[in-house]
């Protein structure tokens, strides 16, 4: 697939790196050329510097022939505008925006835009930990519904890599909660006592 990632922060750079390693043609766009320093030296994709909602910049990134676009900058408005341009003007088959403001999520769904709101997901998991609840919540991302649950790191995995934590076939490790702070999953992260693993699974 030809994939465009908007925003080269922690999420964007990691997403671009993973998709590139999986053999996809990845272009990552950011308006700050220094942002690309976060990408590893083995990144096989292309970096484009420019305003991510500018049509000429997006054309330079190959939007006219791309299969998917993910907008994951820290700015909800930029993410939504980039997705609207991709969807309405360039007819990109699949677009996804990360948004931080939960109040906007339903509005954007009404416009037919697929979104993911890590704020909602993180709040639900932290709340369930504080209240010592089972910690299962459901979230709709696009047309799919995902369940998110958490598990405390077993003692036998203390000091081992996150990749050693096994999940069911249709599930994936979404991230970790450590010292009340959420961080996205990375296979090389070393687990510690007190960590909580957040697991996501697409529901039938």
What does this structure look like?
With 204 residues, the protein is α/β, with parallel strands linked by helices. The chain has two domains: 2-116, NAD(P)-binding Rossmann-like Domain (Rossmann fold), CATH 3.40.50; 119-202, Regulator of K+ conductance, C-terminal domain (Alpha-Beta Plaits). Helix content is 26%, strand content 30%. It has five helices and eleven strands, in the order βαββαβαβαβαβββββ. The protein has helices spanning 10-21, 55-60, 76-89, 102-110, 118-130; strands at 2-6, 25-30, 46-49, 68-71, 94-98, 114-116, 136-141, 144-152, 171-178, 181-184, 196-202.
Number of strands: 11
Point out poorly predicted stretches: none
What is the number of helices?
5
The Cα radius of gyration reads 18 Å
Which structural category fits the helices and strands?
alpha/beta
What is the CATH homology-level superfamily of the largest domain?
NAD(P)-binding Rossmann-like Domain
Rough shape?
globular
**CATH fold label of the largest domain:** Rossmann fold
How many domain units?
2
CATH top level label of the largest domain: Alpha Beta
Q: What is the multimeric organization of the chains shown?
A: single chain
User: Which percent bin holds the helix content?
Assistant: 25-40%
The average pLDDT value, as a whole number, equals 83
CATH architecture tag of the largest domain: 3-Layer(aba) Sandwich
